[in-house]
Amino acid sequence: MMLHNKIGKDELRKRLTQETFKRITLSFYRYVKIENLEIFRNNLYLDFDSLNIFGRVYLAHEGINAQISVPEDNWKKFEEIISQNLKLRGVPFKIAVEDDGKSFYKLIVRLKNKIVADGLRDDAYDVTNVGNHLSAKEFNDAIENPNTLVIDMRNHYESEVGKFENALCPDADTFRDALPKAVEMAKGKEDHKILLYCTGGIRCEKASAYFKHKGFNDVNQLYGGIIAYAHEIKEKNLPSRFIGKNFVFDDRLGEKITDEVISVCHQCGKPCDRHTNCANNECHLLFIQCDECAEKMNGCCTPRCKDFISLPFEQQKVLRKGKKKTGDTKNIYKSRLRPDLKSILAAEQKDKSSLF
Questions:
Q1: Does residue 355 lie in a domain region?
Q2: What are 34-53's pLDDT values in tens digits?
Q3: Which of 125, 183, 204, 274 could bridge across to 196 with cysteines, CB 3.0–4.6 Å?
Q4: Which domain holds residue 207?
Q5: pLDDT band for position 347 (cuts 50, 70, 90)
Q6: pTM, two decimal places
């Protein structure tokens, strides 16, 4: 019985492009106690695999976090599987705002210590004591209050391309970094109305509980996150207080909420909100690149990466030998590209050792 994928990435991507049916991309999460993780994981994998579902599902004793794509013809069967599972019955689905059906190309169901890593002990605070859940209209109305603090609980590269008006955006790479930074940014405003938001709501569940633990008295969160907000404002003809693009963690890398472009190409400074990964797989840096720079740089983030991928493959293999992917490359590049790449290029000049 095969409980994980054994086919290569290139072949899977090829198969995805050849599909003649539509897929529905969605996400869902639930904080629920799961005792027999291994059994739960294996059964869920078999159920999803039988329906040709792709995506990433993370399981922990504290619950489930899933981002998947379901073949449209199998949607009813998928709903039946969810409704028959006592841990998942009634879980809200967040359907993608923009969807080409190419969000995922394989199925991963993985066990984790936590479905959202906060860097804290399990007994550090009561994760069930969450803030008030607000609808899109309630969130819009609350923003009008001058004493309201709107706080983005996502990573810096997410808020860079889209955010709520006047939101405080922690300069963080991960949720565990964003959590203490967000509280510090709101320090002294414990009696203000706090509005938290994230992509689908899962990070705000923990963030709102942490804010309450830290003494904030009026903590609220956008129910269903930006994804649910986008659907609700469209259905109810409400104004969007979110501007730009919603970053998503799949091959789409983003979905338009409004037409405004609030970010720039990291290489030329031209208005752009297109995230991509460096074409040099030894780097694979996530950054923003316009079409013109992508053509000029062959999809790479720096001249060094462009030069590397232009080498014959056998020479690349020789140069990669013994190099750790998480070593020099990530130390220099990280995910912290700023608009003109000057600091990155300066780091290259400072580091005289060869990356590859």
A1: no
A2: 999 999 999 999 999 999 99
A3: 204
A4: 132-235
A5: low
A6: 0.84
How does pLDDT run across 107-158, given as a tens digit for each residue? 999 999 999 988 888 888 988 899 999 999 999 999 999 889 999 999 999 9
Length of the chain measured in residues: 356
Counting the structural domains of the chain, the total is 3
Q: Residue 99 has which token pair?
A: 């969807």
282 and 225 part of one domain: no
Residue pair 148/225 in contact (Cβ under 8 Å)? The answer is: no
Q: Which of 169, 198, 278, 301 is catalytic?
A: 198
Residue 346 half-sphere exposure, CB side, CA atoms within 13 Å?
6
Reported as a pLDDT band with limits 50, 70 and 90, residue 5 is confident
Query: Does one domain contain both 179 and 219?
Result: yes
The Cα–Cα gap between 270 and 84 comes to 50
Q: Is residue 247 part of a domain?
A: no
What gap in Å lies between CA 239 and CA 241, rounded to an integer?
A: 6
Q: Is 278 a catalytic residue?
A: no
Judge if 106 and 151 occupy the same domain: no
